Amino acid sequence: MDIRNIAIIAHVDHGKTTLVDQLLRQSGSFRENQAVAERAMDSNDIERERGITILAKATSVEWKGTRINIVDTPGHADFGGEVERILSMVDGVCLLVDAAEGPMPQTKFVTSKALALGLRPIVVLNKVDKPAAEPDNALNDVFDLFANLGANDEQLDFPHLYASGIGGWADETLDGDRKDMSALFDMVLKHVQPPKQIARQGEPFQMLATTLGSDNFLGRLLTGRVEAGRVKAGDTVKALSRDGDRIEQFRVSKVLAFRGLTQQPIDEAVAGDIVTLAGMAKATVADTIAALEVDTALPSQPIDPPTISVTFGINDSPLAGRDGSKVQSRVIRERLMKEAESNVAIKVEDTPGGDAFIVSGRGELQMGVLIENMRREGFELSISRPRVIFREEDGQRLEPVEEVIVDVDDDYTGVVIEKLTGDRKGEMVDMRPAGHGKTRIVAHVPSRGLIGYHGEFMTDTRGNGVLNRIFHGWTPYKGSIQGRRQGVLISMEDGVSVAYALWNLEERGKMFIGAQEQIYQGIIIGEHSRDNDLEVNPLKGKKLTNVRASGTDEAVRLTPPVRMSLEEAIAYINDDELVEVTPKNIRLRKRYLDPHERKRQARAEG
């Protein structure tokens, strides 16, 4: 059977997973009466809850006698380590662009990776049936983006389609029949070349591992494209590291191929196909699985370096161990090392004390998803404020800069520009009308200045602004950047919060806790209305008297407390504060630094 290998790439929420749903349905991958969840490719709970793809997943469909292997890739740059590896095992990409929003930062990120590999994209202008859609403008923006990214003449002469993923149609013209996805299937067969590896089926077996998984029965699983030769269950092969060092020799226990939403055992895999192998004990991502006579490893795609780090520590608060079952530093370390093994964009280092670990990665969202997964598994952690990773080149200190694209109502452009370019040392790159009373602002802002800014941005724009960011490059250190301006309200007592006390404290600032919540000395219960920290007593009850008067015993009405999400809490805290994360609670608390630690942090900040 003929084979085509393609990846679907797009910005977050531009409709990749919904489009793959339609391709699976219309290719006959599901029975007519089969119950299939919406966004079937989003496999874990966090992906479904947030509506984003975090893990790259493969599937396959059959169309006119050709098997099309499709990889659904993450749209967010924080999970870009997945994208960079996945693109190395496909022969074409389908670039999905929202016809209303046009190319966005993550579109730029994944497209630059695809163009650098020499892939020729098929552009699909999705959601053209939206009232705000402007497909012609979006198409022009895509061409400009390709030109800016250094695309060659062949890549600039890209085919394009107009589509509606939710409507289940794609057409070559805007006023087409709008029946089904057959135009997209035919475009893939016409413009994506069959794998070059097919010609190497007679050579010794070689495969580059691109994703790592596990199964309760089969154990460790490695997925990749077969670069040369053939492999079947029972074959003895070896694993080579990137440097060509031998890691292990093992017997392949199963060869699995993607068929619809499931993986099925097959007799033999041949060069060009994307398959999963089982049976290894040590081999991991970027290793080469090869026949015993092969001694050279396949080249693997370099991964962009991490830009932020977060310290994961044990939960040492007075309430430790009440919610979670995994609280020891040894267990936390094992889990983090397991994560770093399968996710090449994450690095884990031990601290001198041994009870905390520095985890480096791409961004706050990536860290937030890792922490959320761990708390759901029963871990209790204390998390520090994210810190930017600096670089030294030729004796000069460099810091990461991000490209920020903001779509905001015209009325709020002034305050957004002032915050980005003034307080946060950013530089304006572009500003133009985006239609429908909105303005698009493009700025280059140091990563340090964006930590904790999103919540402030949503307040400044009354919740109507959209902010997207992506790593842009390195720039000389721009000096100190002011952090959070408000102080916090800190509990001076241990016990259970009292409604009357919180009611009296409301004039001091906004509360993060409600009545009848367990608190302890040092926990942050709210944000102070001024710039200094204030110790308060949230346990102070109403004094009882033997005199009753009208209105004395009226019920206390509290303003609902501010409940932060995990990412919001991590971005909100200062260097002397921690986020306490348990399966049931997210709390903020003070971390009183000893003088040596305070000096070390001051030196790091310059």
UniProtKB/TrEMBL annotation:
InterPro entries: BipA, BipA_C, BipA_GTP-bd_dom, BipA_II, BipA_III, BipA_V, EFG_III/V, EFG_V-like. GTP binds at D13, H14, G15, K16, T17, T18, N126, K127, V128, D129. It is an enzyme of class 3 (hydrolase). Keywords: Cytoplasm, GTP-binding, Hydrolase, Nucleotide-binding, Ribosome biogenesis, RNA-binding, rRNA-binding, tRNA-binding. It holds the Pfam family BipA_C. It comes from the Bacteria. It catalyses: GTP + H2O = GDP + phosphate + H(+). Monomer. This is Large ribosomal subunit assembly factor BipA.
